[in-house]
Amino acid sequence: MATRTLSVSSLASTAFASFPHPRRSPPAPPLLRLLGPRPRALARASALSSTSSSAAAAADDEDGVDTVEQLLHPRPPSVSSPGATRGRIDRLMKLQRRADGDAVPGPAGPGGHRRWFPYLDGFRPAAGGAEVSIREVVEVLEPYILEARRERIRRAVDNRSYAVCLVVEGLSDFGNVSAAFRSADALGVQSVHVISCDSSKRYRDNRHVSMGAEKWLDIEIWNSPSECFSALKKRGYRIATTCLGTDSVCVYDMDWSQPTAIVVGNELRGISDDALELSDLHCSVPMKGMVDSFNVSVAAGILMHHAVCDRVSRLGHHGDLLPEENRILLAEFYLRHRESTSTIVHEYAKRKAGNFMARL
Known about the structure:
The protein is of the alpha/beta class. It is 40% helix and 12% strand. It has helices spanning 8-15, 30-35, 39-44, 51-63, 68-72, 134-141, 147-158, 174-187, 207-210, 225-234, 273-278, 296-315, 323-336, 341-359, and strands at residues 95-97, 119-123, 161-169, 189-195, 218-222, 238-242, 249-250, 260-264, 281-284. The strands form 2 sheets. Strands 5-4-3-8-6-9-7 form a 7-stranded parallel β-sheet, with helices on both faces. It has a two-stranded antiparallel sheet with strand order 1-2. The chain is elongated. It starts with 7 loop residues before the first helix and ends with a helix. It comes from Digitaria exilis. This is tRNA/rRNA methyltransferase SpoU type domain-containing protein. Residues 164-305 form the tRNA/rRNA methyltransferase SpoU type domain.
């Protein structure tokens, strides 16, 4: 049987040939015509033919949750997945991720320290789908994203870093959590960790505080400081808890070019005793007024801002992703752009598998 080479464009064209094109006055660019309708039209089109694609679409529908409360509220364990207690947050991250026990990848950075990067070069296809590379993800999705939006995503990715991460422990006001998320996104701190204290409590909608920042962050939820800190130390981070004490180091005297996890605590009780004992150092922000504390979200913002400024002064930049890491995170952001983008790639992976089998 004769074989032929299939490009990303030809596979995407086959994948979406059955979907109706939206009405538009100017003619579509050639590549857009090959790839089919934009995501809004795709979302309104008829259901995908395969069970695996339908499941992928259903998962994406749940990704549409847009409140911090719903994202962080853990889902009770199910019979099929008794260990699945982290709710919808895991599905925000689309690409394959490294296990915590994996060696820290990449060359050594300043001071001989290696910096953690969580993603692998691969998209997690639904059952029956072929493996999809990062290059394919970007090529398939780029025509569905406006050029101005693509440029903004590229700028954000260029200024992202995993060398500094934020940990919030036991916060009882999700308004503070949301504000801390917003500061992390604005400052290019990609990795955020939440140590929960009361998963049964209900909170008001705080999207107006976070401005949707949670969509673009890597958020991980932990049940205890020991669980969180153990994972972070395996990834090469030192743990710096905020605490007013005689052994506290001024944040202005710290070297933030070293991978560091900044930990802020509960609004009333502060950092827990367990977290203080397990941390590598205690740090504080100097205060010159009559009060001896900041609002917790303000403190988180000050700490992250100083960490970024210190890194820029020492290294000349904050964003420090290697070229391959940059491409991977770009693909991850493309996948988070809209709810339907993962469905597009799942369908592409299914068609790619079908074409591969047809050539055998």
